[in-house]
Design brief:
8 helices; three-stranded mixed β-sheet; eight-stranded mixed β-sheet; 21 strands; alpha+beta; globular
């Protein structure tokens, strides 16, 4: 058994639909319902708490499906993985809430609220999912834009000190400037070989790797925020079936084709106890990772964030397929 305390697994995903992870309210401005942004770079992101909450629910759904209709018994009572071990799971008088058992993959990997065994932080933690490649329309077709700050999230890619401001860097130079949405920039040549190799290791599709563009960190937030998808919706009056007066609103989303990167950090189960019991559900760091991965196919089928009924939220994990032994009960992504 490994004595390593923890290990981080970089995970990349591509947006199959536009993705709206909102800030939880409306504001005055061009868009009513905005999405979460990094407070420093102002580039949109998906908070790790959002990712962890969704994956916890999907893993609980997966475990319940794997039980094949045979109710799980805890303290002599039926205790389904879903919905009991999903969500916040605060113990309730009716007995629902997290089970907190050392044999439960959901509670040991994602943690559980206070109960018979106190609280447990969980063996897996997820970082925020940051945009590393962002699709932008140009007169030469779509180009996926990145910047040194985004590329530094990929281990071993260096500092990119040769990236100039107010310039678009492509694999081939051009005498003609190129537009990124409304922004027109001169084009310089840049060696993309190292970046392409790193993206290939994350299983980023070749059609994206072949159409990379690099801009400065200062320019990236302007390019991204000027090219987000913005939609308009209206609430429907249930009595009339028509648009409700004054209920028009707008909301923004990361466009489909956006590539995101986050870390899944897994702790060694042998270093922890639940109450006085050893962790029985998972035996190694890689087993913890595999439990998290069982939720990945559900991200493509059921999505993350809001506006799911309006065709938003699905993302496809590129480099973290669920283990083969768990595929039978995973949802089929269309």
């Amino acid at each position: 058994m490994s004595d390593k305390s923890f290990q981080s697994f970089p995970t990349a995903a591509i947006a199959v639909d536009p993705v709206h992870v909102g800030t939880g309210g409306a504001r005055l401005g061009r868009v009513d319902n905005t999405i979460v942004r990094d407070p420093v770079t102002k580039v949109p992101k998906i908070p790790g708490s959002s990712m962890a909450g969704v994956l916890r629910t999907y893993v609980a759904m997966h475990e319940e499906a794997a039980a094949s209709g045979k109710p799980r018994q805890v303290n002599g009572k039926n205790k389904p993985y879903y919905p009991d071990c999903a969500g916040q799971g605060q113990p309730r008088r009716d007995g629902s809430g997290h089970c907190g058992q050392s044999s439960c993959k959901v509670c040991t990997v994602f943690g559980f609220a206070r109960g018979d065994h106190g609280g447990f932080a969980g063996l897996a933690s997820l970082s925020d999912a940051h945009v590393i490649l962002f699709p932008v329309a140009t007169r030469s077709g779509p180009i996926w834009i990145t910047a040194p700050g985004a590329l530094r999230l990929i281990e071993g890619l260096g500092d990119f000190k040769d990236v100039a401001d107010k310039v678009l860097h492509l694999a081939e130079s051009s005498d003609d400037p190129l537009n990124l949405g409304w922004l027109l920039l001169p084009v310089n040549e840049h060696n993309m070989e190292k970046v392409a190799t790193a993206l290939d290791a994350l299983h980023v599709p070749k059609y994206i790797v072949d159409r990379l563009g690099i801009v400065s960190d200062k320019l990236l937030s302007h390019v991204v925020n000027s090219n987000l998808e913005v939609r308009t919706s209206v609430a429907i009056d249930p009595a009339t079936g028509t648009a409700e007066e004054g209920a028009l609103f707008t909301y923004e989303a990361l466009p489909r084709g956006t590539v995101l990167l986050w870390d899944v950090t897994c702790r060694n189960p042998s270093h922890f106890r639940i109450g006085q019991a050893v962790v029985e559900a998972v035996a190694s760091i890689h087993a913890v990772r595999d439990v998290v991965r069982t939720g990945f196919p559900y991200l493509e089928a059921l999505g993350i964030g809001g506006m799911g009924s309006r065709g938003m939220g699905r993302i496809r994990v590129l480099n973290g397929p669920a283990p083969s032994q768990n595929q039978d009960s995973a949802p089929e992504a269309k």
